[in-house]
């Protein structure tokens, strides 16, 4: 990836597939990924890293075993490493994820929803 200005809205407009992370930037050993989400993901955790969710549009619920966190546009939440969580959105939400390079989107759960990020 080259160093240049990134328009988040343009990056999100460039794809329609949901639950498929698109890498839009790198920061040291971290990746910034854009994604569109609707419905419920899988319960999973990331044993070695925190995961930051930033909502760009829509509403995202981060389901946790001890209570939900509901996020709207401009709000973010960091899921601590090892914390089981399940992202969900009743209507399509657009988000950014910040996590170390190589982090699997389904964490410890694996399965058919596992996707490698693609460059956007």
From TrEMBL:
Boundaries of every Cupin type-2 domain copy: 39-95
Region annotation Disordered: where it falls in the sequence: 99-120
Highest taxon of the lineage: Bacteria
Entry protein name: Cupin type-2 domain-containing protein
């Amino acid at each position: 990836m080259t160093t240049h200005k990134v328009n988040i809205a343009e990056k999100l407009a460039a794809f329609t597939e949901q639950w498929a992370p698109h890498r839009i930037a790198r920061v040291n050993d971290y990746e910034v990924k854009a994604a569109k989400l609707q419905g419920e993901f899988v319960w999973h955790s990331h044993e070695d890293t925190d995961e930051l969710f930033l909502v760009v549009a829509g509403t995202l619920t981060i389901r946790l075993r001890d209570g939900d966190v509901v996020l709207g546009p401009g709000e973010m939440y960091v899921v601590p490493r090892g914390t089981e969580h399940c992202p969900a959105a009743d209507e399509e939400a657009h988000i950014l994820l910040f996590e170390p390079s190589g982090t699997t989107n389904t964490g410890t759960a694996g399965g058919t929803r596992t996707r490698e990020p693609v460059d956007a």
